[in-house]
Amino acid sequence: MNRFSPTAKTPMSTKTLATLAIILSVRPLIFADEPAPQVNPKDKLVVETVLRLKSFDLESSTRAKEAVLRYLKADPGSDQYFTLIERFKPQEITEDLARFSLQHSTETSGVRGAELLFLMNAGSTLEAAIKSGDEKTSVAAVTLIGHVAAERTEAILLPVVASTKSPLAVRTAAVSALSRSVNGQKSVLTLVVSGKLADDLKFAAANVLLSSSDPAIKAEAAKHLQLPATADAQPLPPIAELIQRRGDPVAGAIAFRKTNMCINCHKVKGEGKEVGPDLSEIGSKLSREAVYVSILDPSAAISHNYESYALVTDNGLVVVGLLVSETDDAITLRTQEGLDKKFSRQNVEEFEKQKISMMPQDLQKQLTVTELIDIVEYVMTLRKPPEE
What is the pLDDT of residues 120-135, one digit of tens each? Predict the structure, then answer.
């Protein structure tokens, strides 16, 4: 029997069989485990050939399978990449596919990859990623599961919401992910009504439940949740509503620089203080929704390397700030005022990473809704210059 032929019930033309056999017989192809291998032209020919064979069984040809796997390694994210995986479902590619999906969790390609993982009964790779210990990876996994896990979403994510060990950013992402379905919204609402939802998740819950398309959910949520008031005593609209509105970037630039506002902690093109992340190109990095979350619920969106620490000295002085440096002899923190303070280890009684962001938790109280929208409009203009 020809080792390259498909199953007996799948006839192929002699010409097609001959083409595939010639491609594969040129020389043995070794699977290369490299970070970013180049597409091998011979592998590409094999891929194009097997895709033309409507009922080809990939397991019937070791060399064809090796060629396909190499091609998948070398061309992640392309249409052909997803077509191959959907058709042949090679289990050998699940870890690579999960890695790709997690790296592109906010993009269509990442969601498509996650869909294929569950289609291949390999969704456990994303479930495991929730417990990876890396906050960014965990949030990405939760986000993807919210998009694709369907009826399994609640079973996977409700324990994350209830977990006392998961970071706030991960638990917040789980609340948002659950809200993508009516059943998920009902589950979150049940936690709210029963008093089992943690206080630090109520802002996230209010945002999704008070903007629910289900009038009953929205009405019941309003009995238990409310969004904070703004400077003019007006209730804050849900983020889902805010992202649909547009403001004045010029007015936003002025509000950004008001006393006790953004410029006191963030730099923009060299202006401001370097306490929080530099925002000079933030419009190229975050979506409009993510910008609102970072302003209105900052502890749920703390940037890596900008976590705050609390230090208590032996004479009772308490200092909260960003960790600038830490050695066996001394600790240096940068305060909210942008001041670097160095403390000798022998004078430090307590030193602990905080779960709450240094950024004010109620910044919207200093802004009207219009000013908030204007600031976001301005921030979205802060983009990386186009490459020439």
Answer: 999 999 999 999 988 8
Same domain for 181 and 107, yes or no, is yes
Q: Are residue 175 and residue 209 in the same domain, yes or no?
A: yes
Residue 276's SS3 state is coil
Segment 152-199, tens digit of pLDDT: 999 999 999 999 889 888 999 999 999 888 889 999 999 999 999 999
Q: Name which of 370, 365, 376 is nearest 231 in CA terms.
A: 365
User: What is the total count of domains within the chain?
Assistant: 4
**Residue 325 included in any domain:** yes
- Asked if 328 and 283 touch (Cβ cutoff 8 Å), the reply is no
Question: Is residue 26 over pLDDT 50?
Answer: no
Do 127 and 100 have their domain in common? yes
What phi-psi label fits residue 316: left (phi over 0), alpha (psi between -120 and 50 degrees) or beta?
A: left
Residue 292, judged by CB atoms within 10 A of its CB (0-12, 13-18, 19+), counts as: buried
Task: Supply the range of the domain harboring residue 345.
Answer: 308-353
Q: What is the mean pLDDT of residues 297-304?
A: 68
**CA 171 – CA 4 distance, rounded (Å):** 50
- DSSP-derived letter for residue 134 is -
CA atoms lying within 13 Å on the CB side of residue 70? 22
> How does pLDDT run across 241-250, given as a tens digit for each residue?
899 999 999 9
Q: Tell me the C-alpha distance between 32 and 74, whole Å.
A: 10
99 and 66 share a domain? no
**Are residue 220 and residue 99 in the same domain, yes or no?**
yes
Same domain? 103 vs 73: no
Over residues 236-240, mean pLDDT? 86
Global confidence as pTM: 0.66
